[in-house]
Backbone:
């Protein structure tokens, strides 16, 4: 092996030199018999050159790359990294809408839906987000530095207060339909655009069933309710009342439906109540 | 720097072929004289051979786990930039570059995860801190990221014990180097910094990545074990 390594360059140099010397001589002498014999001798030397190793076969080769499908159904959310003021416009001195905290009343990370971005005159990046507020406007602008990384979902939950049905869409296709119980006329479930903020499990409360989702929707009536009167989506110990207008504003589902929903619906899913 | 066309750069037609593959022949033809820079697609449609024996050495697994984290970083970066709408606002040639690199990095993630199997690490939760929402910041970050990936692979590839993995890593390395050159050219930087590329030790790569804080981010806590206090 070692000797082959040393022999190979020597042979190559000799062939190269030979060709360099021989070819001009062929041209100069107009292709005399001697010159042709000399060239043939060099060709013979070249053909005797030891072969180089074949390429090593790679252990793997990636598959065909595919372009990203930027789905119209995709929604981004961001965690609130630092307490910040949400403002009506992407300017530091624009009127405030609300203060964003880093935690929800349940102690989970506070998230907001990401709707748009804009750079102000000072070069600062602002993000328009959907807020968990009671009154309009329900969207506001926060500095990008107040937010952490982005997550993406392709799900959307629509709760129809007239048909008393919830439908979860995944990539635009219905993945789950279920009867719901919604607020009584005296404690109506608010209509509008909201989002899923967190998921609570591991508690022992038959009233709320096995799983409860926190939403950004808030009761307009029960404003003095503990923990800011947020509307949840949860199970129930009274499935016989569904579908119906039976709650204080929360959206109730049968326990098997809420468990299916828990398997299909990620946090950050936009929620339309109409 | 003089403007180079795709036609001039892409002597063997590999880049045009790759763009045609991703975008279709018509668009590739339109870009023929506009796109600047070069890359080739990795050979397509080959399925990974049985690699249990190839990956048996812990050293090789560790190297590819590290490489996977880097591919996660890059793939997430390009994907988020597209989702933020930043790529859609770019001029055509630059948008093709950004989309193509995103497609390549996602393909790299997929194959390395496949090769590592159960040893594959999960993707960290990244925070790119606005670098995906500004074209100029995105471009600068892409240049740094591609240069760093090239330096990393240059350093770790010779340490792989399996010759098959060395060959595969070289194939990734050359593509990342072409990505870097393409990014540099679009950023107005000389595509090739010098006649010899120096590797970077993993410790230095770690330090550089840590300084970005892209991966040292707040991982959101989305669930809690507690009784709800919703209005009911």
Residues:
């Amino acid at each position: 092996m070692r000797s082959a390594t040393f022999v190979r360059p020597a042979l190559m140099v000799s062939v190269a030199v030979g060709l360099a010397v021989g070819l001009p001589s062929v041209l100069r002498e107009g292709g005399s018999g001697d010159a042709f014999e000399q060239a043939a001798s060099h060709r013979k030397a070249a053909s005797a050159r030891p072969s180089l190793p074949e390429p090593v076969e790679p252990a793997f080769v990636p598959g065909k790359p595919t372009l990203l499908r930027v789905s119209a159904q995709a929604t981004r959310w961001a965690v609130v990294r630092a307490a910040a003021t949400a403002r009506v416009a992407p300017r530091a001195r624009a009127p405030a809408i609300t203060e964003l905290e880093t935690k929800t009343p349940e102690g989970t990370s506070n998230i907001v839906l990401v709707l748009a971005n804009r750079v102000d005159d000072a070069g600062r990046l602002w993000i328009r987000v959907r807020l968990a507020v009671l009154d309009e406007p329900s969207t506001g602008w926060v500095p990008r530095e107040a937010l952490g990384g982005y997550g993406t979902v392709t799900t959307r939950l629509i709760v129809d207060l007239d048909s008393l049905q919830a439908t979860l869409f995944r990539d635009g296709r219905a993945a789950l339909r279920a009867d719901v119980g919604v607020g009584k006329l005296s404690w109506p479930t608010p209509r509008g655009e909201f989002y899923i903020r967190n998921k609570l499990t591991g508690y022992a409360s038959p009233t709320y069933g096995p799983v409860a989702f926190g939403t950004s929707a808030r009761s307009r009536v029960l404003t003095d309710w503990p923990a800011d009167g947020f509307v949840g989506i949860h199970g129930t110990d009274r499935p016989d009342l569904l579908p119906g207008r039976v709650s204080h504003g929360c959206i109730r589902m049968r326990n098997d439906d809420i468990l299916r929903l828990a398997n299909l619906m990620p946090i950050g899913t936009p929620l339309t109540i109409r | 720097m003089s403007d180079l066309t795709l036609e001039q750069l892409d002597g063997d037609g590999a880049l045009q072929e790759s763009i045609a593959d991703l975008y279709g022949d018509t668009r590739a033809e339109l870009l023929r004289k506009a796109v600047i820079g070069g890359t080739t697609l990795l050979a397509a449609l080959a399925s990974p051979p049985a690699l249990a024996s190839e990956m048996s050495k812990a050293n090789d697994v560790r190297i590819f786990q590290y490489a996977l984290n880097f591919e996660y970083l890059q793939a997430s970066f390009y994907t988020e930039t597209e989702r933020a709408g930043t790529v859609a606002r770019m001029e055509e040639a630059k948008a093709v570059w950004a989309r193509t690199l995103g497609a390549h990095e996602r393909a790299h993630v997929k194959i390395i995860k496949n090769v590592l199997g159960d040893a594959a690490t999960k993707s960290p939760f990244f925070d790119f801190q606005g670098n995906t929402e500004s074209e100029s910041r995105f471009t600068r970050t892409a240049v740094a990221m591609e240069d760093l990936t090239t330096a990393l692979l240059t350093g770790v590839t010779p340490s792989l014990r399996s010759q098959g993995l060395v060959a595969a890593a070289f194939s990734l390395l050359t593509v990342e180097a072409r990505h870097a050159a393409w990014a540099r050219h679009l950023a107005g930087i000389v595509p090739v910094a010098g006649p010899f590329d120096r590797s970077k030790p993993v410790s230095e790569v770690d330090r550089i990545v840590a300084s970005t804080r892209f991966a040292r981010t707040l991982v959101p806590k989305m669930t809690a074990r507690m009784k709800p206090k919703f209005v009911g």
